[in-house]
Specification:
By secondary structure, this protein is mostly helical. Helices cover 58% and strands 0% of the residues. It has helices spanning 2-13, 27-43, 47-55, 61-75, 82-93, 96-107, 116-127, 137-146, 150-159, 164-179, 197-216, 252-256. The longest helix is centred in the C-terminal third of the chain and has 20 residues, at 197-216.
């Protein structure tokens, strides 16, 4: 008796919530059971201790119903284990029709646009309604893998992960890597303009012609003007054709041209 009292005191220090059965949401019953199981795991309770501690968290009409159900089972020689207690509790406060809908929701669960982390949370929540589908690590891993997005599924399937934890871990790694985009190098430098080969040729030819022109037409020391050939300054000869008898402006060769 002393051990039971001490166990209940330790359990109550965790401040577990009460269940009064005055809610219209059947999912509240499953949330209450999950909270109890977390505390049971923390305290490492035995099966009998779980039943006793859970009983202390029932209030109002739920407590009356539970005490009645407990007495009937004991009278029939069927002591309530924690597993049997959950079965009786769910039958009363979590209808079979709703459990079937939740199981179907789990069977058709797929990732779609969810992140791997969000998909995992939803998977964990719904898997409690279909424990027979995740009763081994292998089955749980394959069920989780089945609902992954197609691009992730193709990669994860190649690893053949034996455990559920490994499938989740690898899926998160692949997802994180697929989101990484290498930073683009800013194009701050303008591209150098390379002239067309013909342009280079034309510029070179022009430069050569200019050089040749300057070399050919040097400044005359006699008339101080640039020209080629013999200087006609001071003579009666035409500056254009070199013949005498007329000036350059009246040169017949210019008229013919």
């Amino acid at each position: 008796m002393a051990d039971t009292t001490r166990t209940i005191e330790q359990f109550r220090k965790l401040r577990p919530s009460y269940f009064k059965g005055d809610t219209s949401d059947p999912l509240k019953a499953t949330e209450w059971i999950r909270e109890l199981e977390k505390n049971f795991t923390l305290l490492n309770l035995t099966d009998a201790q779980k039943v006793v501690c859970a009983t202390y968290q029932l209030q109002g009409k739920v407590d009356d119903w539970w005490q009645f159900a407990h007495r009937i089972k004991e009278r029939d020689g069927q002591p309530l284990t924690w597993a049997r207690s959950q079965e009786v509790f769910y039958k009363k406060y979590f209808p079979t029709s709703l459990r079937q809908r939740k199981e179907e929701e789990f069977l058709t669960l797929e990732q779609h646009n969810l992140s791997v982390m969000d998909y995992e949370l939803k998977f964990e929540d719904l898997s409690k309604f279909a424990p027979h589908l995740v009763d081994t690590e292998e089955r749980k891993a394959r069920q989780f893998e089945r609902g992954l997005r197609s691009d992730l599924k193709r990669i994860i399937a190649a690893f053949k992960c034996p455990t559920y934890a490994e499938v989740v871990k690898r899926a998160q790694i692949v997802e994180d890597n697929s989101r990484f985009v290498p930073p683009s190098v800013p194009n701050t430098q303008k591209k150098r303009s390379h002239p067309h080969p013909t342009q280079n040729y034309d510029n070179h030819s022009k430069q050569q012609r200019t050089t040749y022109h300057h070399q050919e037409r040097t400044v005359c020391p006699k008339c101080k003007k640039p020209h080629s050939g013999e200087c006609m300054a001071g003579s009666n000869a035409c500056f254009r054709c070199g013949k005498e008898g007329h000036m350059a402006k009246d040169c017949p060769e210019q008229k013919n041209n």
